[in-house]
C-alpha cells in the first residue's frame, strides 16, 4: 500500500485574499447592525428615514441584515473553495458530523425566529417594539443565544463537509466575533427592558396616587 506524506500538506493557504474577505464580512455584519440599531435607539435614525413608521423601518433593517448574511455566507463558501482540503476530514464520519451540525444550527436559528418573530429577531426592541415577556421555550431553554450559536454550528458543519481547516479557523473567528457582539448586546437589551419595567412601575404608582 502506498503511503501518503501528510507533512507536505498545507492546512491553510494564507495567501488567498478570499480568506481575509470572508473574515472581514464575518466581523462587519454584527458591527453594522449594532451601530445602526444603537443609532435608531438613540436618534430614531431609521424611523425618521421611513417617515416615522418604526415597524416598517425594523422590517427594512431585517431585510438588510438578512441580505448581508447571504453575502457573508457566499463569501465564506468562496473562501473555502480556494483553500486546501485535509484528507483526514474526508471520511464518512466527518461528513455525518457536518450534516448534524448544519441541521442543528438551522433548527436553532429557525426555531428562534419562530419564537421571536421578525421584529423580535431583528432588533425590534431598539425600535421600541418590545416583547411582552421573556421567551423561555425551545430553543431558549437550551441556549440564551440560539441565533448566534446556531450560525456558528452551521459554519463549522460547512467547514467539515468540505474538509477545510481554514473553515474551522473562520468558525473560531465567528465564535469570537459573536461573543464580543453579545457582550455589548445583552447588557444594552437588558437595559431597554429594565427601563420599560421602571416606566410601568412608575405608571402604576401614579395611577394609584390619582385614585
TrEMBL record:
GO cellular component, one term: endoplasmic reticulum membrane
UniProt name for this protein: Phosphatidyl-N-methylethanolamine N-methyltransferase
Purpose: Catalyzes the second two steps of the methylation pathway of phosphatidylcholine biosynthesis, the SAM-dependent methylation of phosphatidylmonomethylethanolamine (PMME) to phosphatidyldimethylethanolamine (PDME) and of PDME to phosphatidylcholine (PC).
GO molecular function: phosphatidyl-N-methylethanolamine N-methyltransferase activity
Enzyme kind, highest EC tier: transferase
Catalytic reaction list: a 1,2-diacyl-sn-glycero-3-phospho-N-methylethanolamine + S-adenosyl-L-methionine = a 1,2-diacyl-sn-glycero-3-phospho-N,N-dimethylethanolamine + S-adenosyl-L-homocysteine + H(+); a 1,2-diacyl-sn-glycero-3-phospho-N,N-dimethylethanolamine + S-adenosyl-L-methionine = a 1,2-diacyl-sn-glycero-3-phosphocholine + S-adenosyl-L-homocysteine + H(+)
Intracellular or extracellular location(s): Endoplasmic reticulum membrane; Mitochondrion membrane
Record organism: Microdochium bolleyi
Family membership noted in the UniProt record: Belongs to the class VI-like SAM-binding methyltransferase superfamily. PEMT/PEM2 methyltransferase family.
